[in-house]
Amino acid sequence: MAEFKLQFKDKISLFSGFEFNVDKSKGLNGRCDYIIAKSKEQLTLSAPVLTLVEAKNDNIVGSIPQCLAEMIAARLFNEQKHQPISIIYGVVTTGSLWRFLKLVDNIAYVDNIEYPLQRLDKILGILTEIAV
User: Fold this and answer.
1) Separation of alpha carbons 125 and 4, rounded Å
2) Residues spanned by the domain of 46
3) Integer distance in angstroms from the first to the last C-alpha of the chain?
4) How far apart are CA 102 and CA 111, in angstroms?
5) pLDDT tens digits, the chain, 132 residues: what are they?
6) Which of 14, 57, 81, 132 qualifies as a cystine partner to 5, CB 3.0-4.6 A?
């Protein structure tokens, strides 16, 4: 993630361990491992939020629901900030395996492929497509 941030210095902001409390009544609150926003601002999170990365030690599939909830929260956050975007992305990773998700309207798509860290070029390529 640090390498990705360095590539896009002033085009994105990267937050780690951020409390993302969007709507507690809907259960859309809690700490996100990483949030990528399309903003130069690095001091406070501003919309639009593009991607949420959920880092889990050993269970990518079991972590997908949490990542999807964070993606729904991101969509709501963007709407509340009057910066809606049509697609919200998510990533679940163990650090050595990466799986990508996409939320379009109310339909969630989960990539069938888990990308190993040895395919860092592919992982960074996907993240780059999301950020641009």
Assistant:
1) 10
2) 2-131
3) 16
4) 8
5) 777 777 777 788 888 888 888 988 888 888 888 888 888 777 778 777 877 777 777 888 888 998 999 999 999 999 999 999 999 999 999 989 999 999 999 899 999 999 999 999 999 899 888 887
6) 14
Nearest to 90 by CA among 46, 44, 130: 130
For the entire predicted model, the pTM comes to 0.88
* Residue in 66, 132, 68, 65 with CA at minimum distance from that of residue 104: 68
CA atoms within 13 A on the CB side of 29: 7
* Token pair in block for residue 86: 């049509």
Amino acid type, 119? R
- How many domains does one find in the chain? 1
pLDDT of residue 78: 92
Q: What's the token pair of residue 128? A: 């780059």
68 phi, psi to nearest 5 deg: -60, -40
Q: Is the peptide bond before 48 cis (omega within 30 degrees of 0)?
A: yes
